Amino acid sequence: MVKFANRIQPCDNGLNDIFTYANDPALISFAAGYPNNHLFPQAELKSAFASSLTDSTSLQYSGAAGLKSLRAKIAQHISSPRRTFTAAEILLTQGAQQGLDLTAKLLLDPGDGVVVEAPTYLGALSAFDAYQPTYYEVPLQDDGMDLNVLQKTLMTHHVKFIYTIPDFQNPTGSTLSLPKRQALLRLAQRYDVIILEDSPYRDLRFSGESLPSLASLDTTDHVISLGSFSKILSPGLRLGWLVTTPELLVPLTELKLGNDVQSSTLVMSAIDQYLDQHDLSDHIAKMNQAYAAKMATMLNALDHYLPAAVNFTRPRGGFFIYLTLPADIDTGELLKQVILPQAKVAYVPSASLFPVSHQANGLRLNFTNLDTATIELGVKRLGQILTRVLAQPKYAKL
Ligand SMILES: Cc1ncc(COP(=O)(O)O)c(C=O)c1O
Fold first, then answer.
1. Does the record carry DNA-binding as a key word (predicted)?
2. Using CA positions, which residue lies closest to atom 14 of ligand 1?
3. How far is the CA of 320 from the centre of ligand 1 (A)?
């Protein structure tokens, strides 16, 4: 039997049960975080790839930092009157996911402290776990991290970086308010801690005004900021970006070189062509309109079908709504024993989204890759079962 490295933990994040039912045509899955297949600009990307392939350089190596013309376009996309970014501040990555791995690889020795929002993105924990950090959870409020808890943590523990998803957080959909963004940056400066800002949902705002990114507010070089084409163009392209200061960008680029040499020249060049030929903001506006309607359907259905003991978030964008059940319910057990077999609905249970406390009474729902009728039907089934379950005291011990 092969002996894995000590740092490799057995994988039991509660998602395996979903795969048992994945081929059941009756299953309605709110579990994955996929963009909608019908919204990919497929014809436009096809022609962008075709025109890239007319030039043989798109099939050649092109350097670890990524195509400069594409970095310049990304710099323009993320710039605002408050702060102008340049291509020199950007490293192109294999999705935002690679930015998580590179940052952890650069900063963490085994046992080093990492602050995470509770709950947080499971994929980030998977990336960080490989470097064996000590996690500190900071609870999330409607307007982002509880900064009092954060400050106490920073006062009492040595923390290497604070991981935050400030816009339409995964899994809760919550957004960090502007005063808290400013206060978070002050804390990072006072305790000299890096903020890892992970913001793949940033452009997917359905209502209200966009808030400045942490990177654009940072005046003391304490932010590494991640973005991605996955949710605004296509995750199959596997292209994201990392923005930071030269002090960090140079070693991060070296690490990228050691990981995978560079991102795909063909993909970078096709995205560059696409952005030359099309207005990305028009495409994003179209997506936001479609996703806003799906989220409204889900929120209405949750209002209508859920029992009163279940609370849920009301995001203003992004991909997810988060439900909180009474404290003694384990949504992982509930999924396996009741919801999957009887309601044929899937969600992501919360225990694995809390790396320390493993709080089990939450669940994440995604609304982007289903049509509105299916969303309504799935929530109805979920709501009916939850109403029944919560009325029966025996399930409280699940
Ligand atoms: C918060 C967050 N960060 C990063 C990622 C990874 O995205 P990418 O496809 O850009 O690697 C995801 C994907 O779901 C995410 O939700």
1. yes
2. 33
3. 13
Listed by start position, the domains of the chain span 16-40+282-397, 42-277
State which ligand 1 atom lies nearest to the alpha carbon of 319: 16
With a 6 Å cutoff on the Cβ, whether 227 touches ligand 1 is: no
In CATH, which of 3.90.1150.10, 3.30.559.30, 3.60.140.10, 3.40.50.1980 is domain 16-40+282-397? 3.90.1150.10
Residue 219 class from Cβ within 10 Å (0-12 exposed, 13-18 middle, 19+ buried)?
exposed
- Gap from CA of 204 to ligand 1 centroid (Å): 13
> Could you tell me where the DSSP H helices lie in 207-366?
214-217, 246-260, 265-277, 280-305, 331-334
Q: What's the pLDDT band for 6 if we cut at 50, 70, 90?
A: confident
Q: Ligand 1: which of 94, 97, 100, 120 to mutate, most ligand atoms within 8 Å of CB?
A: 97
Residue 319: both structure tokens together: 């991909």
**Quick one: how many helices (H) and strands (E) in the chain?**
13, 14
pLDDT of 18 higher than 80:
no
Atom of ligand 1 nearest to the CA of 169: 1
Q: 244 near 217, Cβ under 8 Å? A: no
pLDDT of residue 248: 97
Residues 31 and 18: beta-carbon distance below 8 Å: yes
Cβ of 102 closer than 6 Å to ligand 1, yes or no, is no
Give residue 149 CA to ligand 1 midpoint distance, Å.
26
pLDDT given at position 9: 75
pLDDT, one tens digit per residue, over 47-104 is 999 999 999 999 999 999 999 999 999 999 999 999 999 999 999 999 999 999 999 9
- In this structure, whether the domain defined by 42-277 belongs to CATH 3.40.640.10 is answered with yes
